[in-house]
Design goal:
The protein is of the alpha/beta class. The chain contains eleven helices and 14 strands. It folds into two domains: 2-66, Alpha-Beta Plaits (2-Layer Sandwich), CATH 3.30.70.1140; 83-333, TIM Barrel (Alpha-Beta Barrel). Bound molecules: phosphoenolpyruvate and manganese (II) ion.
C-alpha cells in the first residue's frame, strides 16, 4: 500500500500514520520528495482496511499496489529518483550522465590514459571491471582489488567517479573504498543473496538487466536492494538474448520508456553490450538518449582492438569523442543536458 501525505502534513501526523501502518503488520518505507512525503507499506496488506488510513490527519490518499514491486514502482516517488554523487554529478533528472572506460582494468597506464581522455570528453564516471564474469574459465578474469586501486587513483587524478562490477558478497567490503557505484552484472541480476547484501551497502547500485530477464523481473530484483533500505538503485538496459544473431544481444530501447513509466528509478543505456559491435554502438547510444536514458555506459579503450575483453564492442577514444558531440545535440532535442 502507498500512503501519500498532504503537502503540509506535520512530522507528528507522519509518525502517527507510520505507527498505525506498523500496527497493521506492514514494514514502512518512507520517502520525502520535493512536495510530499510518501509511505510505502510492504507486507501482507491484502486484508488491511485502507479507509482506516484515509481518515488519519495529514493523509492525502491511500492506494493498494497491485504490482509485485512496491518500492521500485512509480507511485513510491512520482517525481522520479535523482541520485547525487560527489562532484555534483547526478543520475536521474535533467542531466544525462556518462559512464565510460574499458571492459576490464588491465594496467595503470591504460586507466590513466583512459581517465584523462574520458574526463576531457565529458564523462562523469570511469568504468572498468576488476572481477570479470567470463563465459570461459580460461578467459581473463580481471585484476581484482589491485586493479581497482589503479582505477581509483586514475579517477581521483581526473575528478571522476568510479563504477565497477561486484560478483559476490565477499567482494563488497574490500571494494567499498574504491567504487562510487557498485555494478551488478547481467549474470548476477538474480543473485538474490548479493542483492540483499547490497541493500545494506552504503553506496548506490547499478543493476543490469539479465540476459533473459523481463522488465518485471528486473524491477523485482531492484526491489531486493530497496527492501534493505538502499533506495539508490540505477537500472541498466544492456541488451537481451533473442533469436537474432546479427548482434551479440538485442538492445531493447523500448525498455527505457517502459521503465520510466513503471518505475521512478533512473535507467542507463549500455549500447556496448547491447550490440557487441563497435560499428553499432554509436547508433544505439543515440537511440538510448533519444528514448530518454538517464545515462549511457560505453566501453572505450585507448587501444580498443587489443582490449583484454569485449574488444569487438569497444570504442576508440576518438570515436567516443565524436559520439559525445552527437549525443549532446540529441539530449538538447529531448529537453535534457549532457
Ligand atoms: C560489463 O559491463 O563489462 C559486463 C560484463 O556487463 P554485463 O553484465 O551487462 O554483461
Ligand atoms: Mn564488457
Amino acid at each position: 500500500m502507498i500512503v501519500s501525505m498532504q503537502e503540509k502534513a506535520t512530522e507528528e501526523q507522519i509518525y502517527a500514520v507510520i505507527e498505525t501502518m506498523e500496527e497493521a503488520g506492514v514494514n514502512v518505507h518512507r520517502t520525502t520528495g520535493a512536495i510530499q512525503t510518501i509511505l510505502a507499506g510492504v507486507g501482507p496488506t491484502a486484508n488491511v482496511d485502507l479507509s482506516k488510513f484515509e481518515v488519519l490527519p495529514g493523509v492525502l490518499n491511500v492506494i493498494r499496489i497491485s504490482s509485485p514491486y512496491k518500492l521500485a514502482g512509480r507511485a513510491f516517488r512520482p517525481e522520479g529518483t535523482v541520485i547525487e554523487f560527489r562532484n555534483g554529478v547526478k543520475v536521474g533528472g535533467e542531466q544525462v550522465a556518462v559512464m565510460a572506460g574499458p571492459c576490464s582494468i588491465e594496467s595503470r597506464e591504460q586507466m590513466f590514459a583512459t581517465a584523462a581522455r574520458v574526463k576531457a570528453i565529458g564523462a562523469g564516471f570511469l568504468r572498468g571491471g576488476a572481477f570479470k564474469p567470463r563465459s570461459s574459465p580460461y578467459a581473463f578474469q580481471g585484476m581484482g582489488i589491485p586493479g581497482l586501486q589503479m582505477m581509483y587513483e586514475a579517477a581521483q587524478e581526473h575528478g571522476l567517479l568510479t563504477v565497477s562490477e561486484v560478483m559476490e558478497i565477499a567482494q563488497i567490503e574490500p571494494m567499498l573504498p574504491y567504487v562510487d557505484l557498485f555494478q551488478v552484472g547481467a549474470r548476477n541480476m538474480q543473485n538474490f543473496n548479493l542483492l540483499r547484501e547490497l541493500g545494506q551497502a552504503r553506496k548506490p547500485v547499478l543493476l543490469k538487466r539479465g540476459i533473459a530477464a523481463t522488465i518485471e523481473e528486473l524491477l523485482l530484483s531492484s526491489e531486493y536492494i530497496m527492501a534493505g533500505g538502499n533506495y539508490e538503485v540505477i537500472l541498466c538496459e544492456r541488451g537481451i538474448r533473442t533469436y537474432e544473431t546479427a548482434t551479440r544481444n538485442t538492445m531493447d530501447i523500448s525498455a527505457i520508456p517502459v521503465i520510466h513509466k513503471l518505475s521512478h528509478l533512473p535507467i542507463v543505456g549500455d549500447p556496448s553490450h547491447g550490440t557487441g559491435r563497435r560499428d553499432m554502438v554509436a547508433p544505439m547510444a543515440r537511440a538510448a538518449v533519444a528514448a530518454g536514458a538517464d545515462a549511457i555506459l560505453v566501453e572505450v579503450h585507448p587501444n580498443a582492438d587489443k582490449a583484454a575483453s569485449d574488444a569487438a564492442q569497444t570504442l576508440y577514444l576518438d570515436q567516443f569523442d565524436e559520439l559525445m558531440g552527437q549525443l549532446r545535440v540529441i539530449a538538447t532535442a529531448v529537453g535534457r543536458t549532457m
